[in-house]
Structures are given as C-alpha cells and as structure tokens.
Specification:
This protein is mainly alpha-helical and 292 residues long. The protein is built from twelve helices and two strands, in the order αααββααααααααα. It folds into two domains: 148 residues; 102 residues, Cytochrome Bc1 Complex, Chain D, domain 2, CATH 1.10.760. About 2% of the residues have low confidence.
C-alpha cells in the first residue's frame, strides 16, 4: 500500500509538472512587428475602439480626466472582484513596458512578471488585434498623462487566486479564431474586427459557462440580470443598419430612449471613430445568427 501511495504521489507530481509546462504563459513573436512602426494618430483611434479608458480611468472621471488611466474601477464577477490597474505612462503604470510587453499582455494574457493575467483583461478578444494596431496603440498610450496611483490588488479568493490554473482556462477557451466565419463583405469584415477584437463586445453581451468562458454558440445573445447586457443579435435587436450606427454615434435609440450605464462610455468612444466604422459594426451585427 505504501508503494502504491508513493507511485500515485509521483504520478501526480509528474502530471502537475507536465500541466505547468504545457500551460505556461505565452509570449508574442517579435517577428510579427518586423517593419512595423507605430503611429500616434492611428493609435488614438485604436484606443477609443478598444475602450481602454472606459475601464482604466478613475471611477466617475469626466472630460479630459478620462485620459488619466490611473485605474481603480471595480468589476465584480462570480470569481471575485477585479480592480483595473494603472496603465498610465508612470512608474506605477506602464512607463517601463516595452511594445513586446504590451503584446504579451494583449495577445497572450501574460504579465510583465511572466505570469498569467486574469481574463478580466479581455485578451480573449484582443488576441485578434493586428500587429499594426497594437504598435499604434502603444505609441498613443505613451502620450497620455502619467499618474502615480498604485494599482490595487484584485479581491479574488481561493482557488481562483492560483494564477497557474489560468493556463488550463486558456487551453479551454483562448483562441484567435473568428466567431462569425463565411463570405463577408469588406464592410462586414471590418465590423467583425471592431466587434470581435477591438471592441470586445462579446465579453459583456455573450453568456458564459460555469468556468467563465464565453458560450460562442450563443454569441451576443445577452446576459440577463443586474449588471447584465442585452441580446444584440437580430432576434432581439430589430434596428436598421442606420439606426444602429446612429445609436453608436448619439446614444439615442429609435424608441427615443438614451444610452445608460457602462454602455454610455462605449458610445462616447465610438462617436469619435469615423462614420464608416460605426456603419461597419451595424453591418456585422446584421450578419450575426439570431439567438432567442
């Protein structure tokens, strides 16, 4: 019996070792940036499309203060409460981050300490971001105001505070595949990129399973309850392309209602994008399968 126990323990340790090796944090291939130079003006548009300030600004910030990415907003979940970190170009933020470090975070969910990041950072969507857009975003982030506020720790209890387990989560749910495939027009493909990658709309509007992975069979079908998000598939969102685009610009619905909650920040961001981008999002949403 003692030998059996020893063998089982050794097998368990071996299995754990294999798991940790197979699920170790990933890193971006520097070759993806070969010949690419970042552009601040383009990076500003990526910044708004990706909604960086909406989560990383201070709670209740208004006007120019929204560009101060001091962090601190709280995001509750069934796994604990996540606090947005400082990502301003300060010592407490990302002043010492290289472009490679930002790519590790957004494409692989890997932090500067070479550990797994929680998917509260929507890297499950940002993984589809192009190298050019990431380089542009990096250059724009460096132009924002620096703030010395330290990042607060997440409020996550056992066992979710074991970051190594996130490697298993990534094996199950982390992919750079598009949700909507098929023969898309150039406008619809641009809309897909904005919705599925930069805008990470599915992170709020798609139901999740017990482990927190997006249920892509119910893509954009909504999350009911307090703090949830509505179904924006054609099954429930009966607006025309023009009405969707106008909503993303103005915040007004065809029923004379107005945007509220965190979505108000999304509209504020998308109002700064070219009208062609808002039209592209609307065209894409019309191609999404209807889910009741």
């Amino acid at each position: 019996m003692r030998r059996i126990v020893i063998v089982l323990v050794l097998l368990g340790l071996f299995g754990l070792g294999v798991f940790l090796i197979v699920t170790r944090p990933g890193h971006a291939d520097p070759e993806r940036f070969r010949g690419i130079e970042g552009n601040i003006a383009r990076g500003e548009m990526v910044y708004y499309a990706a909604g960086c300030g909406s989560c990383h600004m201070a709670e209740g910030a208004q006007g120019e203060a929204r560009l101060v990415l001091s962090g601190g907003q709280r995001f509750a979940s069934p796994f604990g409460t996540f606090l947005a970190p400082n990502i301003s170009p300060s010592e407490q933020g990302i002043a010492n981050w290289s472009r490679q470090a930002l790519a590790d975070a957004l494409w692989h969910g890997t932090g500067r300490e070479r550990g797994h990041l929680y998917p509260a950072l929507p890297y499950a969507s940002y993984v589809k971001m192009t190298a050019q857009d990431l380089a542009d975003l990096y250059e724009f982030l460096k132009t924002l105001p620096a703030d010395p506020t330290p990042s607060a720790p997440h409020e996550v209890g056992f066992p979710f505070n074991i970051r190594a387990s996130l490697g298993g989560w990534k094996m199950l749910f982390f992919t750079d595949d598009w949700v909507i495939e098929g023969d898309l027009s150039a406008e619809e493909a641009r809309g897909r990129y904005l919705v599925e990658a930069l805008g990470h709309c599915g992170e709020c509007h798609t139901p999740r399973n017990a482990l927190g992975g997006m249920d892509k069979n119910r893509w954009l079908a909504g999350v009911p309850g307090e703090g949830g998000a509505p179904n924006i598939t054609p099954a429930k969102l009966g607006w025309s392309v023009e009405e969707i685009a106008y909503y993303l610009e103005s915040g007004f619905t065809p029923d004379y209602d107005s945007v509220g909650g965190h979505m108000a920040y999304v509209v504020d961001n998308y109002a700064k994008l070219p009208p062609e981008d808002r039209a592209a999002v609307a065209a894409y949403l019309k191609r999404v399968p209807a889910v009741e």
